[in-house]
Amino acid sequence: MIEVKGLSKKYNKELAVENLDLFVDKGEIAVLVGPNGAGKSTTIKAIAGLLNYEGEILLDSCDNKGVEAKSLLGYIPEMPSPFPLLTIEEHLHYIAKAYGIKDYKDYMEELLKLFNLDDKRDKLGGELSKGMQQKLSICCAILHKPKIILFDEPMIGLDPMAIKEVKRMMKELRDQGASLLVSTHLLDSMEDLWDRILIMKKGKVIFSKSRNELSEGEKLEEIFFEVMEE
Ligand code: ATP
């Protein structure tokens, strides 16, 4: 589970996130939505432990900066940045080494097949298309079977088959008890998946409700516009 308490982040003197609280339970997919500049990526980067900030962030009750929390976490950034001189397969061996996992080869093959990367395994990071980089970024983030996964605009650049696989994978991870936080503007893409909606505006979460707390059949887009217009 993800617990964020009193998160504030300033870039120079500008407050990007202000005293933000957020909670994502085990076995829950939370979508994080909000206008451009609302602070979604900053929040995700803070949870991933990539920024200095004020406040407390716990991942399955562990401080997010510790090694234990890192081993629980998978992060898919907004902009994939593969190592230009490593092949697709070398990226995955490197990640396995970094996380100290040994029995990963079957799962690695499964992921490569799932994303149609198995016949491109010898391509260098610097030779990959945007969509291929995104697929590799997702494979790298979930190879160690994390319990907490942060997705920053995961569907951008993906072909329809890959989108279908990412959605199937999100469901599977949720059903295995993982906590997923997904920032996206593509509300339709998450319509059949979300369990909780978190709406951010000007650095704050202004709305957090689970699907059960809302009227049945209400669409993400409708909820978003209703809240923003209030
Ligand atoms: P988008 O939907 O456009 O991706 P977002 O909700 O993810 O936006 P953030 O990227 O978190 O928003 O940005 C929040 C605020 O922080 C914005 O005002 C932005 O200009 C500012 N900001 C983000 N990154 C930096 C940075 N590295 N340096 C200075 N200001 C930044």
From TrEMBL:
GO terms for molecular function: ATP binding. The keyword Transport applies. CDD domains: ABC_DR_subfamily_A (cd03230). Keywords: ATP-binding, Nucleotide-binding, Transport. Residues 2-227 form the ABC transporter domain. It comes from the Bacteria. This is ABC transporter ATP-binding protein. InterPro entries: AAA+_ATPase (IPR003593), ABC_transporter-like_ATP-bd (IPR003439), ABC_transporter-like_CS (IPR017871), ABC_Transporter_VariousFunc (IPR051782), P-loop_NTPase (IPR027417). Coiled coil: none annotated.
